[in-house]
Amino acid sequence: MSPRLSLIERYAAHLPVTARTPRLSLGEGGTPLIRAPSLQAETGVAEVWLKVEGANPTGSFKDRGMVLAVAKAAEDGATLVMCASTGNTAASAAAYAARAGLRCAVVLPAGRVALGKLSQAIAFGASVVAVRGGFDDALRIVRDLAADGGAALVNSVNPFRIEGQKTAAFEICEDLGEAPDALCIPVGNAGNITAYWKGFRESAMAGLASRTPRLLGFQAEGAAPIVRGAVVERPETIATAIRIGNPASWATAIAARDESGGAIEAVTDAEILEAYRLLATCEGVFCEPASAASVAGLRSRARAGGLRGVRVAVCVLTGNGLKDPDTAIRLAPELREVDASTRAVRAALA
Ligand SMILES: *Cc1c(COP(=O)(O)O)cnc(C)c1O
After folding, report:
1. Integer distance in angstroms from the first to the last C-alpha of the chain?
2. Burial, 199: exposed, middle or buried (Cβ in 10 Å; 0-12, 13-18, 19+)?
3. Cα of 318 to ligand 1 centre, how many Å?
4. Which of 155, 302, 315, 319 has the most CB atoms at less than 10 Å from its CB?
5. Paired strand residues for 90
6. Pairing between strand 33-35 and 47-52?
7. What is the Cα–Cα distance from 272 to 242, expressed in whole angstroms?
8. What's the whole-model pTM score?
9. DSSP states of 230-267 as a string?
10. Predicted confidence pLDDT, tens digits, the chain (350 residues)
11. Rounded-to-5 percentages of helix, strand, coil across the chain
12. Which atom of ligand 1 is nearest to the CA of 186?
């Protein structure tokens, strides 16, 4: 058996790679696209699919863009990569930097990063600094630091991140044999919705699809600057990966929305948590809270009659539920502890 091609190799023709670009890989991409029967029954949409990006090597879609951003940084002779992060970008940057033999520095909002993500950045050997502020502050700081030179900035303002991330749209078109009618996606810094729109347009041009989907982006109500049309100074949501008040890719997200005939809407934390629980208990898919915003949005539009003409929908589940064990445990009933006897366990389960 020969190993599957890496993301860079498989999509080289569509990516800005040269013969000198290192063929860096941790096995990213090629993630499952699985059917969601419970959501189909609930929403009346004939086909609902989940793009399970939590199956990427570090547990989020960030790996698709990071593999290319770090490979290009290495190609350019950089020795240090740097990013601001709500957690997943840091985990991914730290892993690919380790793999490529580069140093990695990450700046995080203190006290706002899910435990799994923080443990990854530390385990992969990154220099981690937590700032007393939000993600938007962290991004401003790393942009300043990177402008001094010497470090490659690998946030999604790095165009290679968007290029790598667009490959998810290619995969969806390949797997379905056509573009879906609608793509539901969480929106934080808005790099991913930008990347999907680029990927779907290029899929259509390359003949992988005959058309492009409507992009339906969802922000958390307490962190919905694009929906409101104004920067949110103190964004607040349980979905920490999309807790962003001033998205770097704001303009391209609006373009993706408008050119695709889609929408960007807000979902509440309660709706996000309901979708999060439903995905785990009814579909067997454990994603992180931010990821569930896509499904919360699908359900909310279905209730409001906003899915007319949608026969095939894909929801992007951006990250793995194991990233944020605290949220899962906090929502669960307390764990019961009993004597180590069959009788006691039988009684407890009754
Ligand atoms: C980064 C991230 C998002 C948001 O993606 P943007 O490109 O910032 O809009 C959503 N969910 C998860 C799990 C993420 O890591």
Report:
1. 48
2. buried
3. 6
4. 315
5. none
6. antiparallel
7. 12
8. 0.96
9. S--SS---S-GGG--SS-TTHHHHHHHHHHTT-EEEEE
10. 567 899 999 999 999 999 999 999 999 999 999 999 999 999 999 999 999 999 999 999 999 999 999 999 999 999 999 999 999 999 999 999 999 999 999 999 999 899 999 999 999 999 999 999 999 999 999 999 998 888 999 998 999 999 999 999 999 999 999 999 999 999 999 999 999 999 999 999 999 999 999 999 999 999 999 999 999 999 999 999 999 999 999 999 999 999 999 999 999 999 999 999 999 999 999 999 999 999 999 999 999 999 999 999 999 999 999 999 999 999 888 888 999 999 999 999 99
11. 45, 15, 35
12. 10
Sign of the dihedral through C-alpha 175, 176, 179, 182? negative
Cα(334) to centroid of ligand 1, in Å?
Answer: 30
* Residue 17: φ, ψ to 5°: -110, 150
Among 113, 160, 318, say which to mutate for ligand 1: greatest number of ligand atoms within 8 Å of CB: 318
What is the rounded CA–CA span in Å between residue 312 and residue 314? 7
Helices vs strands, H then E, count in the chain = 15, 10
Residue 246 has which token pair?
């001033």
Lining ligand 1 with CB less than 6 A are 60, 62, 88, 156, 186-192, 241-242, 288, 290-291, 318-319
What is the CA(242)–ligand 1 centre distance, in A?
Answer: 6
DSSP readout, 266-292?
Answer: EE-HHHHHHHHHHHHHHH---B-HHHH
Residue type, 143: R
